Amino acid sequence: MNRPPTLGDADLERLAAFLASESSPANAMNLAQLEGFLTAIVIGPNVVPPSAWLPWLWDAENGEDAPTFESMAQAQEVLGLVMGFMNRIAEAFLHNPAAFQPAYLRDPRWSAQEWCAGFLQATQTFDAEAWTRLWAADAVRHLPGADHAGWVTPFIRLGDDDGRAVTQRLGDAQRWVDALVPTLVALHGHWLAERRPAMASAPRGPQRREAPKVGRNDPCPCGSGQKFKKCCGLAPTLH
Prior knowledge:
This protein is mainly α. It is 54% helix and 0% strand.
């Protein structure tokens, strides 16, 4: 099976340039958004085929607009860059997740806000029920006042409008920037374990987490400052 080659920095520059060009729709993701988006897909609960996620790359709002390619050769080149970018992320998490460096750490042009917005979009668009269940189950283990925040908190506090307002008010953005890579490593490990087939010698039944229930009108334990029903308890929607 042929796999797209892992991209180098020069290849990423070409992809970033195309995403910013007039050939891409106005709502196309930039490189940081795309990396966050693809990272959530790579480490997430299930395999998502390119046919499902590519439309959202070109139109982050509705998943409907498409780019304008000058030729079939250009289309193949750009799609090869996109798939190579995904392969680069997958290789990083396969070999050394803790060494993964998001775009905002590699290049000051990109922001953690853009990266986290892309990550959150993927969790809301694909396997949203599984992600929401994880956010809620993890958050209730870290009730307000606890030292450790839930896994969703860095993404909410940096990539969500309401969460960023809380972050700006508290002035603790660096805390969440520093927490992102360790959180990605934890999420990768969680979903990797979930994806593994049950051990033949010891079949496992459904796992249940016993945790106190959070009321829909209670403050969300993830620390976003929003009510639970408007944050981790929000019903999955497509943008």
